[in-house]
Amino acid sequence: MQRRGIMWRDIDPRELDIRLIVCDMDGTLLDGDSRLPEEFWEVYRLLTEHNVTFVPASGRQLATLTTMFQPADSGATGVDDVEDVEGSHGEVSLPRTNDFIAENGNLVIHSGERVWQSVIPEAIAHEVIHAVRRGVNDGRNLGLVMCAADGAYVDRDDDAFLAEARKYYASLDVVPDVADVEDDFLKFAIYDFDDAEAAVGSIFGSLDERYRPVVSGQHWIDVMDSSVNKGVALRRLQEALGVTREQTAVFGDYLNDREMIAEGQYSFAMENAHPTIMEEANYWAPANTEAGVVQVLRHLFDGTSGAH
């Protein structure tokens, strides 16, 4: 694969003033089993020591992200909570992550508060439902997730689909008919058991151009406002934090990270990234299965940089 970017080891940490790190989850930070690398919390400690804000940015819902970064059994209740983590230097107390970009940019959380969200009109919701049902009638194996700020809804209840949906939606309600649900929807996620990229045009070709489908993984399609993406969300967060593009590092691997990659001077494509992301990022990082994000952050924030 052709790489345009510079190798991560060639960056001199002493020349940097990074204040914000925004990181995609699946295929980027998470390992091959969709788990945080064991070394992550030790690296997170380094970031907090340097007053660097770490922000997960994902197509996943907020409830899933907060569960991953603020474990439910810890007793955490608010933005001032800390987590005791056993690291190589013994137990360390860490302030919890309270900044998130969720639902592929449709929901932005800063310091535990909702600072921005995008709501899709009810008429578009019904168009999406009908489009998915037409696809199913035409023989495609599809499942629809209706995504609101505080939870998600499905009406397909077989084990195979629910197993996939629950990987990304910790708060998931199975209802008789999603068309009857009244809520403010941020986006719609469609799981295609075959090939999402091949299904996009045939299923959603008649949708209003403003609500374009975005391929967010091999099997996932997101339908959302075309003016919204992770890049727009990142700009909102940069404004809230008073951080510039030149002070921002971004890690991503797939097409739904493309706009976000453009909003950070230090943009990293994972070794396993889609060719488009690999071409457009300024730097490249090892694969997610090699804890690539952790490796790069250790290089940048291991205490050798005089800039932090």
From TrEMBL:
Pfam families tied to this protein: Hydrolase_3 (PF08282)
CDD domains for the chain: HAD_YbiV-Like
Gene3D superfamilies membership: 3.30.1240.10, HAD superfamily/HAD-like
CC terms in the record's Gene Ontology section: cytosol
One GO MF term attached to the UniProt entry: phosphatase activity
Protein name, as recorded: HAD family hydrolase
Organism: Corynebacterium kroppenstedtii (strain DSM 44385 / JCM 11950 / CIP 105744 / CCUG 35717)
